Amino acid sequence: MTGTGRVGVGVIGAGVISSQYLDNLTTFPDLDVRFVADLDLGRAEEQAKKYGIPAFGTVEQLLADDAVEIVVNLTIPKAHVDVALQVVAAGKHVWTEKPFALDRESGQRLLDAAHRSGLRVATAPDTFLGAGLQSARRLVEAGAIGAPLTALTLLQNPGPESWHPNPDFLFQEGGGPLLDMGPYYITALVQLFGPVARVAALASRAKPFRRIGSGPRAVEQIEVMVPTHISALFEFEGGGSAQSIFSFDSKLRRTQFEVSGVDGTLVVPDPNTFDGELSIYGEDGTAKTIAATGSMSTRGTGVVELAQAVRAGRRERASGEQAYHVLDVLLSALESAERREVVEVESTTTLAPPLPEAWDPRDRTLGE
Asked: Dihedral (C-alpha) 80, 245, 223, 339: value to the nearest 10 degrees?
């Protein structure tokens, strides 16, 4: 690795989500996407040709490519840590999809391995780097609603089996609404309130089996192995609190994210998006709409920010430390529901500063 100029990137996993990443990664001027790897070599070849990427092949071949400095890990959740450990062992930085890990022990093992090697582990979601949540954080820090006190977040829908052709993993360990969608909401809450200190939660499962609603496996039943509705209370180290629902058991589809402070209430865009309008409700109950400002790019934004951080020798914003804390919070919620008691969150994290308002991943900053 040269340590200068554009950063070479390889992608492991050529499934559906890879297109969302490659649509962006191949257009960001600070990145040079060089390799796509997958167990299905035909699928890897198809994605490489579609996006004009010069090489495809096996994971081992990707990791042997000295021009690749950052590997984007788009494997299924249960493979995230094993693949990321291979990447670190090969001397490369890794960006991994959420969830960061399925348990604290493997997540800590990954962070320790990277630390020993002087490498970075950065993790989705990177939605908080988008204009919507960055604008929300700037407003809160500027005192637009006074000191933030409480938050309410809702994620409710009937579940993904009606539209996803292979939803099995979403109802296994590492799935369910909490582990699948919770990282977006908890990451956003941490960005606005700081680290979580303790959690109390209740959980339930509406039915033991679900029926696939589309694709070649339509009408096939799959087993539900995780809670599909979680109600949680979070207390933050700084003293604020949040109430959240994560549900795949609601026929009413609803997303909501609001933060109430001493002087007003801020309605925040969907944390699973990168942009969106914001509203502030003041003393008279009327809303002031505020346009989000900042990056409007989508998936892969965090990979660019990681690349720039590597070159600058500074900490990346979507850090492994933050991802570990978010995982710890999510697992603490599940443990609280199982044990029916408040669970103390052992980990913490330190927030990086907000992005400059003018920051744009489509700007060239690293030269050739």
From this structure: 90
Mean pLDDT for each 10-residue chunk of the chain (368 residues)? Answer: 82 94 97 97 97 97 98 94 98 95 96 97 97 97 97 97 89 92 97 98 96 92 96 97 98 97 97 95 93 94 98 96 98 97 98 95 91
| 160 and 267 inside one domain | yes
Classify residue 60 by burial, with Cβ atoms within 10 Å: 0-12, 13-18, 19+: exposed
Q: Are strands 148-156 and 93-96 parallel, antiparallel or unpaired?
A: unpaired
User: Does 283 lie in the same domain as 173?
Assistant: yes
Split into its structural domains, the chain has a count of 2
Whether this prediction's pTM lies above 0.70 is answered by yes
How far lies 164's CA from each of 46, 116, 144, 161, 211, in Å? 21, 39, 40, 5, 11
Our separate counts of H helices and E strands in the chain read 9, 17
Strands 241-247 and 93-96: what pairing?
A: unpaired
Beta bridge partners of 57: 37
Side chain identity at residue 347, one-letter code: S
Task: Please name the amino acid found at residue 292.
Answer: A
Question: Using CA atoms, how far apart are residues 321 and 318, in angstroms rounded to an integer?
Answer: 8
Residue 47 host element (H or E) = helix 41-51
Query: Which amino acid, 290?
Result: I
CATH code of the domain in which 30 resides? 3.40.50.720
Cβ–Cβ under 8 Å, residues 320 and 187: no
**Position 113 in a domain:** yes
